[in-house]
Each structure stands twice: as C-alpha cells, then as structure tokens.
Amino acid sequence: MGPRSDPKAVVDPRLRIYGMKGIRVIDASIMPRIISSNTNAVSIMIGEKGATMIKEDWGKD
Question: In this protein, which residues make up the domain named Glucose-methanol-choline oxidoreductase C-terminal (predicted)?
Fold first, then answer.
C-alpha cells in the first residue's frame, strides 16, 4: 500500500489496485512492513476495514 508515485505500491489507501477498476486487495499482503507478531488479528482488522470501504463506495462509480 502506498502513493501512486511509489513504484513498489500496488494498492491505494482504499485498497483499490492501481490501474484496474473494480478490484481490491483486502488481506495481509497490503501491509507495507512485515510485523513480527501473529498476523491473525491484523488480517481480521484489514478485512473488516475493507468491507466497510466497499460498503461506503458501493454505487459511487
């Protein structure tokens, strides 16, 4: 995850893939840095936030 100007970034802050329409990545792979603890809780939080973003953006396009 990162700004469009970052060559290593794949998704924007709303988890949409750069250069594609209608697809998001909502899993632990979006974390810019690997954490040193269990990723289960973090992955659940990413999923919950992603679901909320999808609900907010529904019908905007």
Answer: 1-47
SS3 6: coil
Residue 26 and residue 11 in contact, taking contact as beta carbons nearer than 8 Å: no
> Reduced to 3 states, what is the DSSP secondary structure of residue 24?
strand
Positions in the chain whose pLDDT score sits under 70: 61
Q: Residue 16: which residues within 8 A CB-CB, separation 6 or more?
A: 23, 24
DSSP 3-19: -TT-TT--B-TT-BBTT
Output the pLDDT for position 35: 82
